[in-house]
Specification:
Elements (H helix, E strand, L loop, with lengths): L2 H15 L3 H12 L8 H13 L3 H17 L3 H17 L3 H15 L8 H14 L3 H18 L2 H17 L3 H16 L5 H17 L3 H15 L21 H15 L2 H14 L5 H17 L3 H13 L7 H8 L3 H14 L7 H17 L3 H15 L3 H17 L3 H18 L2 H17 L3 H18 L2 H11 L6
Helix pairs in contact: 1-2, 2-3, 3-4, 4-5, 5-6, 7-8, 7-9, 8-9, 9-10, 9-11, 10-11, 11-12, 11-13, 12-13, 13-14, 13-15, 14-15, 15-16, 16-17, 17-18, 18-19, 19-20, 19-21, 20-21, 21-22, 21-23, 22-23, 23-24, 24-25
C-alpha cells in the first residue's frame, strides 16, 4: 500500500481508539470503496463498529461478515469467534433469529476449545441469558459467574462491569434482591464514573433501567435514566487521553435511553414531557432496537388514555402492538373506559396467562393484577378482584412500588366487600407509599378510594378534603375523566 493509504488507515485506527467513530467511519469507508485496497480483519471489525455507531447497521453486518472470513483464513479462532458472536447479536436485534442462532453456534465452534480468553465472556453472557429465559436459575447463575471469572482474568473494566450486571440480573430473577442490587450498583458506578468504553457504557445504560423497572425499583430507574440521557445528549468528542464518557457524533443509544426515560416520566406525572419524549424516541430508536419504540408508544398510549384521549390512545397501543409489544394492561383499561368490559377481562386474562412467571417482569405482572382487580370490581366480580389482589399481595413483599400497588388494590376490594375500616387502613398506607415515591396520579387515585372509606365510617369532612386534593392533582395532570369523577363525588362544579 502507498504511504497515503497507510496513513489513512493509521488515522482511522487512532480515531477508533479515541472513539471518534464518525471520523473512523469516513476514513475506512472511503478506503474500502476501492476493491484493490484490502482491509485487515481487525480493520474490518473497526469499520463494522464505526458503521454501527453511524447508524449503518447493514454495513456493520457486511463488514463483520468479511472480518470473520478474514480471521478464518488467517487461522485466528479468537477473532473469528468474537466476530461470530457480534454477528449473532446484531442479527438478533434485526429480528433474524435463525441467522443469530447459526452465528452463535459458530462462535461456540471457534471459542469452546480455546484456553480461557476474554472473547468467551460473551458466550457465557449469552448462556446466562438463555438459561434465565427458560427458567433454569442454577445454570444461569453458573454461566454468569463463569463470565465474571473470565472478566476478572481479562483485566477489562468493560467486561467486568457487564459481568456484574449479568449476575445481578440472574440474582434478581432468583429473588436475591439485596445481593443483586449491590452488584448492579457496582457495575453502574463504573459507568457513571466514565471508566468504560462508549459501547459498554451504552450497553449498560440500555440494560440497567429496564431491569430496575421490571423489579419495581423506581429510585434506581430514575437515577440511571437521568444519567443515561446526560450521557447521550451532549455532542462531546473524545480527547484521546483515556476512556471516553460520551462517544462522539450521533449516539445510537439515545433513542433507547429516551424510551426508558418516557416510562419513568410517566410514573412521575410529567405527562406532557413524557409524550413529547416518546415521539422523539420513536424517531431516534435504531432499526435493531424497535422494542424500545414499542415501549415508547405504549407509554404514550397510557398518558393519552388517562387524559381521556381514547382515540389517540388506541392508535398508540396499535403502534406498540405492530412493533411486537402486547399493549396490556393499558388496552384493557381503554376497553373498560369504552364500556367494552368483556374485551377488558379477556385481554387481561390472556396477558396474565402469557406472563405467568413474575421473575421475568415483576412490575409488569403487578400492573396486570392491579388492572385485573380494577376491571373485576367494575363488573362487580368481587371474588375475582379479591383473587387478583391476593396474588398481588404475595408479589409485593417489601418493595415500595409493589407494596403501594398491592395496598391500593386490597383497599379497593375491602370497600367492595363493605369492610371500610380495613380498607381505610390499607388505603392510608397506600397513599403514604405513593406520596413517598412521588407518583402523583396513583396517589390521587388512592385518595379517591380513601375518600370513599372515610365517608363509609362517617368522616365526611375528611372525605371532601381527600377528593379536593385528588381533583386538583388530576386537573394538573390533565386526567380529565378522573377529575370529573372526583368533582361528582365532591358535589362541586366541574372544572375539567
Amino acid at each position: 500500500m502507498s504511504a497515503p493509504t497507510i496513513d489513512r488507515i493509521a488515522r482511522a485506527r487512532t480515531a477508533a481508539a479515541r472513539e471518534s467513530w464518525a471520523e473512523a467511519y469516513g476514513l475506512l469507508h472511503a478506503h474500502d470503496a476501492h476493491p484493490s485496497r484490502a482491509l485487515t480483519a481487525d480493520d474490518l471489525m473497526i469499520l463494522a463498529d464505526a458503521a454501527w455507531w453511524a447508524g449503518h447497521v447493514d454495513e456493520s453486518v457486511a463488514a463483520r461478515l468479511r472480518a470473520h472470513a478474514a480471521y478464518v483464513a488467517g487461522g485466528d479462532h479468537r477473532g473469528a469467534g468474537l466476530a461470530s458472536w457480534w454477528l449473532s447479536y446484531e442479527y438478533e436485534g434485526l429480528g433474524r433469529p435463525a441467522a443469530a442462532a447459526g452465528w452463535l453456534h459458530r462462535a461456540h465452534h471457534h471459542l469452546d476449545d480455546e484456553p480461557p480468553c476474554p472473547e468467551q465472556c460473551f458466550l457465557a453472557w449469552t448462556d446466562a441469558e438463555e438459561a434465565a429465559a427458560r427458567g433454569d436459575g442454577a445454570v444461569a447463575l453458573a454461566a454468569a459467574r463463569r463470565m465474571n471469572r473470565l472478566a476478572v482474568r481479562s483485566g477489562s473494566p468493560d467486561l467486568l462491569a457487564l459481568s456484574r450486571h449479568a449476575q445481578a440480573s440472574v440474582l434478581l430473577a432468583d429473588g436475591r434482591r439485596a445481593e443483586a442490587l449491590a452488584l448492579l450498583d457496582d457495575a453502574m458506578s463504573a459507568v457513571t464514573a466514565g471508566e468504560l468504553s462508549g459501547l459498554f457504557t451504552g450497553l449498560l445504560y440500555r440494560l440497567a433501567p429496564p431491569l430496575c423497572l421490571k423489579t419495581a425499583d423506581l429510585a434506581r430507574a430514575v437515577e440511571w435514566t437521568n444519567a443515561a440521557m446526560e450521557w447521550c445528549e451532549p455532542p462531546w468528542t473524545g480527547t484521546g487521553t483515556g476512556p471516553m464518557t460520551v462517544p462522539s457524533g450521533e449516539n445510537p443509544f439515545r433513542g433507547v435511553c429516551r424510551a426508558h426515560r418516557v416510562e419513568v416520566l410517566d410514573l412521575l406525572g410529567a405527562w406532557e414531557l413524557a409524550e413529547s419524549e416518546a415521539r422523539l424516541a420513536c424517531r431516534e430508536v435504531p432499526v435493531d432496537r424497535l422494542e424500545s419504540a414499542a415501549a415508547a408508544y405504549y407509554a404514550a398510549g397510557d398518558v393519552q388514555r388517562r387524559q381521556g384521549r381514547l382515540g389517540e390512545a388506541a392508535a398508540s397501543y396499535a403502534h406498540a402492538y405492530e412493533l411486537g409489544r402486547i399493549p396490556q394492561p393499558g388496552l384493557a383499561l381503554l376497553r373498560l373506559a369504552q364500556g367494552r368490559t368483556d374485551a377488558a377481562v379477556a385481554g387481561l386474562d390472556l396477558a396474565l396467562a402469557c406472563l405467568s412467571d413474575p421473575a421475568h417482569d415483576l412490575l409488569g405482572r403487578a400492573r396486570l393484577l392491579a388492572a385485573r382487580t380494577e376491571v373485576a370490581l367494575a363488573v362487580r366480580d368481587v371474588p375475582g378482584a379479591a383473587g387478583a389482589a391476593a396474588e398481588l399481595e404475595v408479589l409485593a413483599g417489601d418493595v415500595p412500588l409493589l407494596r403501594a400497588t398491592a395496598d391500593t388494590a386490597r383497599g379497593a376490594v375491602a370497600l367492595a366487600e363493605a369492610r371500610p375500616e380495613p380498607g381505610l387502613r390499607l388505603l392510608r398506607r397506600a397513599l403514604a407509599g405513593w406520596l413517598e415515591l412521588r407518583v402523583p396520579y396513583e396517589a390521587a387515585r388512592a385518595r379517591t378510594l380513601l375518600a370513599a372509606a372515610r365517608r363509609a365510617v362517617g368522616d365526611e369532612e375528611a372525605a371532601r378534603l381527600e377528593l379536593g386534593t385528588a381533583r386538583a392533582v388530576f386537573e394538573r395532570l390533565g386526567a380529565v375523566p378522573d377529575a370529573r369523577r372526583a368533582a361528582l363525588l365532591t358535589g362541586g362544579p366541574r372544572r375539567a
